[in-house]
Amino acid sequence: MVADAPKQFELDMTQWQGSLDELRGLVSERAMTGETMLLNMGPHHPSTHGVLRLLLELDGEEIVSCLPDVGYLHTGIEKNIESKSYEKAVTLTDRMDYLSPMSNNMVFCMAIEKLVELDVPERAQVIRVICLELSRIASHLVWLGTHAIDMGAMSVFLYAFRERELILDMFEMLSGQRMMGSYFRPGGVWRDLRPEFLPALNQFLEIMPGRLDDYERLLTGNPIWVDRTQGVGIIEPDVALAWGVSGASLRASGVNWDIRKAMPYSGYETYQFDVPLGEHGDVFDRYMVRIQEIRQSMRILHQAIKKLDTAQGGFRSDNRKFVPPPRTELGQSMEAVIHHFKLWTEGFAAPDKEVYVSIESPRGEIGCYLHGTGGNKPRRVHFKTPSFMHIQAIPVMAEGHMIADLVAIIGSVDIVLGDCDR
User: Fold this and answer.
1) Helix, strand or coil for residue 52?
2) Can you give the pTM of this predicted structure?
């Protein structure tokens, strides 16, 4: 039957030669000769946490090499920002790291403020800290739930998303949106805290420590979890630094680097909090560091609530050159109406200079390079995002491990592909 098969069903190996030639030099000679196997993991695999393709070279179940392939999301956000006025571009930054939109808003607004030398009132700074730490907790809850379900712990996924809903409810109170709120604006925030916000925040801070204890009871001492995470995906401190790893993934290797402490912004130098560190740089340490970071974020939030009572200034700068007049003035002043119209149609001009600002996002260091033109649109915008840096370090952590371990490693570095494919 096989010998008589029609020619169109015969396998012509020459059609694969072009693809093999492209891989030459990227994989070992063993793969080229067929001694080891090449396997695509993704870009539609749920455990790659987005449209990420990993080309694996396998010797049985053991990973010989891992080649990340990014670019499937191709949002073009940076180039789109260059065609918009500064304030209108804030909405685009929400769509990068879509699990922590306010971190993206923050670094972009800080770059604008540095470029045009725009002040930010103390009250607005405190509100920003509250939102950033809530974003950190919300992002870590998504990381914890998805990381756990990747390895079969479904209950933690349900519990973590239950608590995240409470934070999204608070974001909706502030901006009217649960995720892409564009709440941060140059010079401060869009509007002041709603009356129902602080009671909801206090209630959240009351219940969250107990919920976090529940997560740890389910995972931290669980023998299956420990076996799947301890000693897996180790990256040494010097190697992590060389590959550009930052955030909790770097601190899990024992490197004490947190931008909130090293280069404080938004008044972080006035808050008391610790920087959790790991010792081994494995999947388990990356898990423990983020759990402890949630506790430290709650500690910061308690302090920020007290600071609101004494913080000076309003929720946004009074510099009318860059900030529209409040709505209360629009019915009384024609000049205010004209000014409002000009700022929302033309925007404001920024000098022909370049600046760089970085902050500590839930995933690590996110930086914004901004080059003005002297007009109302930037010449160049570029973001340095942690997910892009961490994806390149995955092969270092994965070599010599099993495919099942790779699932744990990807989850432990907490990547978001919108943060990578800008």
Assistant:
1) coil
2) 0.92
